[in-house]
Amino acid sequence: MTDLARLPPRDERGALRVVVESPRGASLKLKYDAELGVVTVSRPLPLGLAYPYDWGFVPGTRAPDGDPVDALVYWDAVSFPGVVVPCRAVGVVRLEQDSKSNGRVRNDRILAVPVKHPRGDDLRSPDDLPARVRDEIAQFFLSAIFFEPKNPALLGWGGPEEAERLVDGCTRALAAVARRRS
């Protein structure tokens, strides 16, 4: 079986790959465990919260928090854990939180739209979303970790170019870690 975390971040057409961990409507945070090759339970979300859209990660990346880059797939469908969705980046929610060791670390999240989602064709940047939807997505990210010792802070939104730079930088970061290990 293929290790989903080791997939290249982009497919042969250049689409961003997002591996779904927690599907839309899930009230559990699920996490892909590369060592076991399965999706495991991380923790329940606070009462009343559920993922508004499919949630997962961009494989082949390493974000500043040490995990792959997080991604939210903005569409009106529900998939399953382990599904790989070819997407295009629409924007990035900039977040900062306490690190596991010391200090603060960025934990930005990509907002992506599937390439095969005609109802999302007009969505090119976060500015194309109603302000209320942007605010609700940002508030979801803060509320989902309310009881975790992370002290999150919302730093704003970035556009598709910033999201692409984040993915490219985190792809290089993972490659650098792999070179040091070999």
From TrEMBL:
Metal-binding in keyword set: yes
UniProt keyword list: Hydrolase, Magnesium, Metal-binding
GO CC term, one of those recorded: cytoplasm
Cofactor(s) required, per the database record: Mg(2+)
Gene Ontology BP terms: phosphate-containing compound metabolic process
Pfam assignment, any one: Pyrophosphatase
Enzyme nomenclature, EC number: 3.6.1.1
PROSITE patterns xrefs: PPASE (PS00387)
Keyword Metal-binding: yes
Molecular functions (GO terms): inorganic diphosphate phosphatase activity; magnesium ion binding
Protein name: inorganic diphosphatase
Originating organism: Anaeromyxobacter dehalogenans (strain 2CP-C)
Lineage, highest ranks first: Bacteria, Pseudomonadati, Myxococcota, Myxococcia, Myxococcales
